[in-house]
Amino acid sequence: GAGVSQTPSNKVTEKGKYVELRCDPISGHTALYWYRQSLGQGPEFLIYFQGTGAADDSGLPNDRFFAVRPEGSVSTLKIQRTERGDSAVYLCASSLLGSQNTGELFFGEGSRLTVL
Amino acid sequence: KNEVEQSPQNLTAQEGEFITINCSYSVGISALHWLQQHPGGGIVSLFMLSSGKKKHGRLIATINIQEKHSSLHITASHPRDSAVYICAPLGLTYNTDKLIFGTGTRLQVFP
Q1: Smallest Cβ distance to A42: which of B30, B44, B102?
Q2: Of A31, A70, A94, A96, whose CA–CA distance to B96 is shortest?
């Protein structure tokens, strides 16, 4: 596709349920980032992939959060036993090599997660 | 203390005014992004810079790595510039590209 695609765009779930959020980066982009943004706040780093491996997962808030990128393209962010505090917009971004090298970062429109 | 401080947090201007948004950070970095986020959430990368100044249309970004400070300027502001502007330094941690985001500056330009 032409840009970074995130699905679903909106997800409403109940407390305690399992959720998967998908990010399809720009073709050929090796770097992929997950952020989450709560209302009125700036994006908060979650995890960064370079290829298939998680280069930095220091932003994942706890072990309920996990992300994979098995073939180095599409990534899935998985949230187990969702809590109301997980409600946020989850943003994905991709870059050709890494933002330090190319200078350009492309963001998806985000997946809005609401936990009731 | 936040690693990234932006000022002002909110800014209103009349069309045509010159706008300055400031960003100070405490971590060691090699580069910094300025991002624009419109209502509805889409984020667009405006600049990445590691030294000096970059210009794109009516937007100018400057950075002083030694002083840990960057500014974004908008000349001849227009209502369509209304958005949240986010400063995101590239904090090198264990050689990874970890962007650290500021909380943003909400700009409203009135006609």
Answers
A1: B102
A2: A31
Give B41's contacts in chain A (Cβ within 8 Å). 37, 89, 91, 109-110, 112
The one-letter amino acid at A62:
N
3-state secondary structure of A41: coil
Q: Which residue in chain B is spatially nearest to A107 when comparing CA positions?
A: B43
Could you identify the residue written with the tokens 């290829």? A51
- Helix ranges (DSSP H) in B1-111: none
Of B30, B45, B98, the CB nearest to A105: B45
pLDDT digits 0-9 by tens, A64-86: 999 999 999 999 999 999 999 99
Q: Is the pLDDT of residue A102 over 50?
A: yes
Cα B108 from Cα B8, distance rounded (Å): 12
Strand partners, B7: B22
pLDDT in tens, B50-109: 889 999 999 999 999 889 999 999 999 999 999 999 998 876 554 556 677 888 999 999
B57 Cβ contact list (under 8 Å, min separation 6): none
Q: Does the pLDDT at position B23 exceed 90? A: yes
Q: Which residues of B touch A58 (CB under 8 A)?
A: 93, 98
Residue A23 predicted with pLDDT over 60: yes
CA dist A95 and B34 (Å) reads 15
How far apart are alpha carbons A43 and B103 in whole angstroms? 8
